[in-house]
Amino acid sequence: MRKVIYIVPLLLLLSFTVPANVNGAKAATILKKVSAVYKKYKTMKSTFTIKSTDRNDKSTKSSGTLWLKGPKFKLDYAGQIIYCDGKYTWTYNPTDKEVTKEKYKKKKGSISPSDIFSIYKRDFKNAYSGNSKVSGINNYVIKMVPKKRRNYSYLKLYVNQKTNKISKLSQYYKNGTTLSVLVSKFVANPKVSDDYFTWNASKNKDVELVDLSN
Fold it and tell me: Of the candidates 170, 160, 172, which has an alpha carbon nearest to the alpha carbon of residue 136?
């Protein structure tokens, strides 16, 4: 059974003309505004595109949809649908008519599409890295360097200057690969019940359950 790759990309190089403490303070101010925006939402829905580019500049793209409600999420991506109620995940493969249930445990250092709206809360050294346009709109760029050793070097977070919403997240790997998640559409507070994030076996009796949660 195929597994969805939980990875998301982020931020720009630090300017050498501005002191690091100034860049850090400006990044903190921007991220404080971002946090204030997303704290207002109980639920979120976004459509996104993930682009992977290797060191030879060859790239691939794929799109998906994400629903969030607190720690719960539902992810429709790469031909699979993942349901997570914060305790378990159900990975459904429509082609194989199979769903795998597992205890939810995020891999150390991994980043998933569900992290894009909260990644800035983690343990990073953040610095303002200038401005850049995303889909023709001006964005602040924040470089995020992990304080602990990871399999990637740094992230870049792109924040819409008018709305203070996250537009894009890029992840830069040590092997030259870049992964970017571009938010193409965002819906605040869509109506979704808790059971939307749980696999419904009674409605999918023809689907085989592989239970790995015990």
Answer: 160
133 three-state secondary structure: strand
What does the pLDDT average to over 42-47?
A: 94
Three-class DSSP category at 62: strand
What does pLDDT average to over the chain?
A: 86
Contact by Cβ (8 Å): 60, 49: no
Lowest mean pLDDT among 2-11, 26-35, 106-115, 151-160: 2-11
Tell me the two tokens of residue 129.
């890295």
Query: Whose structure tokens read 């082609």?
Result: 95
Four-point Cα dihedral 134, 140, 145, 146, nearest 10: -80
Percent helix, strand, coil in the chain, to 5, is 15, 45, 40
Name the nearest CA neighbour of 74 among 192, 177, 163.
Answer: 192
Average confidence (pLDDT) over 169-198: 94
Answer for the pair 62, 186: CB distance below 8 angstroms, yes or no. no
For each of the domains in the chain, give its residue range(s) and CATH number, in order of start. 20-197 (2.50.20.10)
